[in-house]
Amino acid sequence: QLQASGGGLVQAGDSLRLSCTFSKRAFGLYAMGWFRQAPGKEREFVAACNWNGGSTSYADSVKGRFTISRDNGKNTMYLQMDRLRPEDTAVYYCATGSGRFPLNPTYGYNYWGQGTQVTVSS
Fold this sequence. Notes:
Blueprint: E1 2-5, E2 8-11, E3 16-22, H1 24-27, E4 31-37, E5 44-49, E6 56-58, E7 66-71, E8 76-81, E9 90-97, E10 111-112, E11 116-121
Parallel strand pairs: 2-11
Antiparallel strand pairs: 1-3, 3-8, 4-5, 4-9, 5-6, 7-8, 9-10, 9-11
């Protein structure tokens, strides 16, 4: 019920936009977020937004470069990634949960999509 897409291979400094389609009936009123996991590292929080995208939060490492948004009319959440760096290379996941925004990154997300690979070359 969550499906991420839009990953790819880009060069440092480039932009990429990830999309996550979701079931509106199931998750239309839920907060949603993006996470990533690099090889050999634990999964980490990237960004989150409330049910209508009006409230957002970001990890310090992406603040000012990434923008999260969602269009409930299209049942899609986005992650616009600008000025990409090699350290942004990871598998990116979208997720959601039924709690109040902001969801706890450790245990607040109950539903996960499959990941999409983002590779940034130097």
